[in-house]
Amino acid sequence: PVMRSHRVTVEQMAMLEPGLSETVCASLLVVMRQAMDECVSRGVPAEAARDFLLGHMNVLGAVIFKEVDGVFSDACNKAIEFGIPALMRDDWKKVFEPQEIAESIRRIT
């Protein structure tokens, strides 16, 4: 549910949708689902993989977005340090450049 309303410019709204919500968030969630499916294909029981991933998403998200006081373990921080460059292109933030946003809107409409 929507908790608050906000006033933003048209350009800011385009950064939020499709930029943040669809291009970034939905794409990364699809990759997370694909990673879960890969674990299942390698023998992890599907329910275990799903419950494990969704549970971690809740806890990790709460810490990352400062909804709870907490920090990640050293092991988690090291996994993030390795994982981001292994999974993400160095120039991924270009999806928020005005020309990229405009091209994204053209592609999806």
TrEMBL record:
InterPro entries: PGDH_C, Semialdehyde_DH-like_C
Domain of life: Bacteria
Phosphogluconate dehydrogenase (decarboxylating) C-terminal domain residues: 1-109
Protein name: Phosphogluconate dehydrogenase (Decarboxylating) C-term
Organism per entry: Rhizobium lusitanum
Phylogenetic lineage: Bacteria, Pseudomonadati, Pseudomonadota, Alphaproteobacteria, Hyphomicrobiales
